[in-house]
Amino acid sequence: MTFRALVLTQGADRKVSGTIETLPEDRLPAGDVTVAVDYSTLNYKDGLVLTSGGGLVKTWPHVGGIDFAGTVETSENPAFKAGDKVVLNGYRVGELHWGGYATKARVKGDWLVRLPASISSRRAMAIGTAGYTSMLCVMALEKHGITPASGEILVTGAAGGVGSVAVAILAKLGYTVVAATGRAQEGDYLKALGATTIMDRKELTEAPDRPLLGERFAGVVDTVSGVMFARALAQVKYGGAAAVCGLAAGPAFPGSILPFILRGVSVYGIDSVMLPKAPREEAWRRLGSDLPLDKLDSTVSEAGLGDLMTLAPKILKGEIRGRVVVDVN
Ligand code: NDP
């Protein structure tokens, strides 16, 4: 029994090389469930692993791919049986543990989530870690008590992977979405996803540097951090909330404590990697019902294992549009 994988090695200069190899199944890492992988995807983190390791990989040779979707082949875990459709995100798979850039993966069953019947393996990877993180952000705002009647929701980095799926989910749920982007040419795309208002990123970055600005947003999904997040926070209405998941503009933000202590604003930190299983399953269940999957399809391009070494530097330079789904077979 064999499987094919993009096997990565790191040279003395830290540069990573990849070759597609056929390996015996006993090379798969330890785990109680073996999955026949249908699709993986390309994320920023994958770009780091495929080019330099990004300090994320501890042992070589390595198989990358931080998420995958496929079918259970064998299972020693009572929660899964052969034929189950599953998805995996996070748990440092593709970093510390061999990942989805292979026709088979062996993992702990506790890391797997059963796919809702309405989501195919390919669509699961079109959603990927980005889309699943968007759902977690929306769930955090809902848990706070924000409803469509509360008012406008701002999404920063709206044309990016997390941002665009957040726009689509919020619009489908009936929220009024303000999509903040630095790419005016993506306005039509964001409107098609359901944004009500397209905001030029500069409206935030060039807003007055004051701890409190006029109250406007009931909630914020922030994928950017930096000045954008600081000015967004200053415009959250009394009792509102922000779900914070990204740092596209870097980790620091020049914010003030005043929105918290004068307007009772809350901030929810979103981590998709080590999130416990119950909210993970809830997020995938919700993606099956609340994400307009047909809208997502227009953002997807497809690649194979043989394309990954070429695509990796491009994602690091921001040259990839939409989501890249990787057909590993
Ligand atoms: P993308 O690169 O697809 O999107 C990021 C978007 O942010 C860009 O499209 C752009 O949006 C905007 N942006 C980029 N650089 C800047 C800048 N310097 N200033 C202002 N805006 C900027 O990334 P993803 O959507 O996949 O991820 C977004 C963030 O979320 C990343 O930081 C990622 O690491 C993080 N993330 C976190 C997760 C978690 O578990 N917490 C999980 C997944 C992702 P536009 O063109 O619209 O202006």
From TrEMBL:
Residues 18-326 form the Enoyl reductase (ER) domain. InterPro entries: Acrylyl-CoA_reductase_AcuI (IPR014188), ADH-like_C (IPR013149), ADH-like_N (IPR013154), ER (IPR020843), Zn-ADH-like_protein (IPR051397). PANTHER family: ACRYLYL-COA REDUCTASE ACUI-RELATED (PTHR43677:SF1), SHORT-CHAIN DEHYDROGENASE/REDUCTASE (PTHR43677). This is Oxidoreductase. The lineage of its organism: Bacteria, Pseudomonadati, Pseudomonadota, Alphaproteobacteria, Hyphomicrobiales.
